[in-house]
Amino acid sequence: MDKRFQVFVSSTYEDLQEERQEVMHALLELDSIPSGMELFPAANESQWSLIKKVIEDCDYYVLVIGGRYGSKGPDGISYTEMEYRHALQIDKPTIAFLHKDPGSMPASKSEGAPDGKEKLAAFRDLAQKKHAKFWSNPADLGSVVSRSLIQLTKSHPAVGWVRANELPDREASLELLRLRKQVDDLTVELQRVRTTAPQGTESLTQGADRFKIRYSFVASDGAFGFNDWNGSFGPSWNEIFAALAPGMIHELSEEQLKHEFNTFIRMTEKPVLEAEGSEPIVDAKRFTIHESDFQTVKVQLRALGFIVRSEKQRSVKDVGTYWKLTPYGDDLMTRLRAIKRLGSSDSTTRFAS
User: Fold this and answer.
1) Is 151 a domain residue?
2) pLDDT digit string (tens) for 201-254?
3) How far is residue 182 CA from its own chain's centroid?
4) Same domain for 124 and 265?
5) Closest by alpha carbon to 91, among 50, 64, 61?
6) Are residues 129 and 245 in the same domain?
7) In three state form, how does the secondary structure of 165-195 look?
8) Could you list the residue range(s) of the whole structural domain that residue 27 is in?
9) Torsion region of 228: left, alpha or beta (phi above 0 gives left; psi -120 to 50 gives alpha)
């Protein structure tokens, strides 16, 4: 939207009319909206509250100081200084423009009374403590104001004004509010999905429920060399998922997932098989899950909402299937695999159900 800034121009009035005209022209050339004492050429106490309101509505405040202090209010402070102090008090972005040599100005545009000169000097000192520039003639003032206001709008961006027909209409505003609420609702739902099982999984085996896994391996019986063997065991679904999940923090191919499963079988079953039993087994290796059991486990983990196929873009030659954790699966993996502090209620439990 085309934004315009409103600028309050504050100065003494009768002695600086030409200078104020230059300032006004400079502001209009910048597509700004000038505002100021032209509206209140005879300021008095009854108008002061209105002047303050105009300053508050403006985006920037410009002060021009020449050779006169200006008409004073009941407390002895000029209305120009009162305006400037009010702008400072409300943190309005301000910039002051002081005449380089007020003593060189004509007597008609200079303070004659010692009290007025003293107050003007104090006012100039106050203005120079903030952002201030200097000018020597009306044309010079207009040029300095133009350059300085451009810098001020960049360093202190303001709200500005726009045409009413450029503002969103009521229907558009309501639609924006509706869409914002929808985004908020979806954000809440997404957070719920991260830690909640998908609907319909209540009837599926999971958690501490056990599943019989068949596998084959190669081992020596200690007498006749290496032979093919078969075995089975019944880990819980939590144990299965806790073993496979870390590899899918990023993603795993189908073959990599099967390799992780075979490693889980070897780490779990090898010590048991090689322990003393009715049939001695030595150097068990090459553990391989039965294909049908592998497919069943994969489907079950997907149905429980733990894993999902990765849709990451790959080369045309790569036609493999890849798997990764869902947000819910990632949350469950963290709860299953994170090391609990000693003394917690679950410290003696291998996996949480």
Assistant:
1) yes
2) 899 999 999 999 999 999 886 666 788 889 999 999 999 999 999 999 989 999
3) 19
4) no
5) 61
6) no
7) HHCCCHHHHHHHHHHHHHHHHHHHHHHHHHC
8) 6-166
9) beta
Averaged in consecutive runs of 10 residues, what is the pLDDT profile of the chain (353 residues)?
Answer: 87 90 92 78 68 92 94 89 94 95 88 90 94 93 93 90 70 78 79 74 93 93 78 95 93 94 94 74 89 96 93 86 92 89 57 41
Q: CA 40 to CA 19: how far, in whole Å? A: 17
Q: Among 190, 192, 321, 303, which Cα is nearest to 241's?
A: 303
Tell me whether residue 28 is in a domain.
yes
Q: How many CA atoms lie within 13 A of 212 on its CB side?
A: 3
In this structure, how many other beta carbons lie within 10 angstroms of the beta carbon of residue 94? Answer: 20
11 and 118 share one domain: yes
Looking only at the bridges linking them, the beta strands covering 282-289 and 226-233 are unpaired
CB 84 within 8 A of CB 10: yes
What backbone phi and psi angles, to 5 degrees, belong to 233? -155, 170
Distance CA 275, CA 318 (A): 43
HEC string for 241-290:
HHHHHHHHCCCEEHHHHHHHHHHHHHHHHHHHHHCCCCCCCEEEEEEEEC
CA 259 to chain centre: 41
pLDDT for position 142: 92
Token pair recorded at residue 134: 């200097």
pLDDT at 245: 94
- pLDDT value for 41: 53
Residue 54 lies in a domain: yes
Count the domains in the chain: 3
Residue 307 phi, psi dihedral angles, 5° rounding: -130, 160
243 and 276 share a domain?
A: yes
* Type of residue at 132: A
* Entry pTM: 0.50
- For residues 33 and 51, state if they share a domain: yes
CATH number at 305 reads 1.10.10.10
d(CA 257, CA 247): 8
